[in-house]
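Aim 2, interim progress. The first record below pairs a target sequence with its structure tokens.
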Amino acid sequence: MNDTPIALVTGAAQGIGFACAQAISESGARMVLADINTEGVMAAARKIDGDAIGIACDMADPAKIGTMFDQIETELGAVSILVNNAGIAQPCDFLETTVEQFQSVIDVNLTGPFLATQRAAKAMVAKGIEGAIVNMSSINAQVAIPSIAAYCASKGGVMQLTKAAALALAPYNIRVNAVGPGSIDTAMMAGVNADPGAMAMVMSRTPLKRIGTPREIGDVVAFLASDKASYITGETIYVDGGRIGMNYTC
């Protein structure tokens, strides 16, 4: 039987998700990258190593999440490391946000991680795997921005989901933690990077006076997924250059 851990990272075609996959792969895990962007995730998997697999999956669709796990478990075995990274924001004026817009963010950012965590944990329990689950929260679990109300609500939910799942799965030695990024150099930050005024505002609320890199998030995720974090569960680690300690957000 192959004892190589199987690691699944969602939203892994680019940015933070891809950096998480890169960092975890360096520990020797067999990588599975999932993303709604089929071509992008296949290309990302090829960049990791010859054994990495790319799977197209819409994390807002419960049936597709189930199909993804069916494929992984049939072809490779049970996932022992899960990184719930897939997420969307959809900025919109608070008074103009529709219920459909709000729900679409919750579906991807909160319901998807719940379903993936539950499915992965069931297999871990059945196989006696003492695994690790890392959810992608955000500093917006703690501090709010009015134009992304659904995103803030979803990430606050992820923080609490992480705690609840950690308590539920502790008897099986399955650890559940989260990472809360601050301003990171990803596609979401492209507009800010191009706007000196917006960048000045970001720097004014970032004590380390720079934006973070995806790999800086990936390294923390890889740590939480590793045995080096064997006594950490139910926590959200904020990787934000010091911003969460400040008393203003915008």
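The second target in this work package is listed in the same format:
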Amino acid sequence: MNKLKVLIADDYRPLAELAKGFIEKGSKKFEIIDLATSSKEEIEMIEKYKPDIVITDVVRKVEDISGFDIILKCLAEEKDVRFILYTASTREELLYKYKQDKMPSNVLCFIKKPFKWDYFVIEVEQASLPLFEKINNADGWKEDYYNNKYINLFEELTEDDMYILRKLNIYIEKKLYSKYEFDIIKQKFGLFYNENEDEPDEKEYKKSLEDVFVSNKEYNKVLEKFDEIDNKHVYYK
């Protein structure tokens, strides 16, 4: 199984080391190639290592160039690297500050601080799934990566849960689902947005629940059930 090469960039090194530790403990999917603690180091290490992904903060207290500037620089230079942002700023604040209409296309996901580290690792894994699949196109890699963990979603979900999923064109079969297949279902489910979200700008990237006649309460109930299944079968077992 090929791993994705990851560079972590944060001007506060203890936080970069913490991110490294949680990723290495919580996932077999990544190789942390180095830690960058300044914008200069981040740029140099992108050139040197050519990572698949850079997990980066934004604010650099003593430098003119920020993590977001580096993202735009790599996009302009058409570098084959993707970014995962983790920052205390909201998406709206970043887009306004850097005069962008939407997130740059080389950003895989945006994770707002503060967050739980288990959530952070899960978000990083799910965001990088297409890249991981691309470099592991041989038969059997999915089973190898997910440690043969299979879930009977038909038994885990209630009929009410499955009714909501069907309204979103997600159908649960009477079979065992691999963790990979479960992640794909969660990605499809995540394409819809909740009207009560704290981040209204998320709506630009998702579909409205109103269009499929699903309430926030119903959506959140299934979302909580997915978290329960993850905890029971995948991340803590």
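The beta strands are 4-9, 30-36, 53-56, 82-87, 107-112, 150-151, 177-178, 192-193, 207-208. This observation will shape the mutagenesis plan for the next reporting period.
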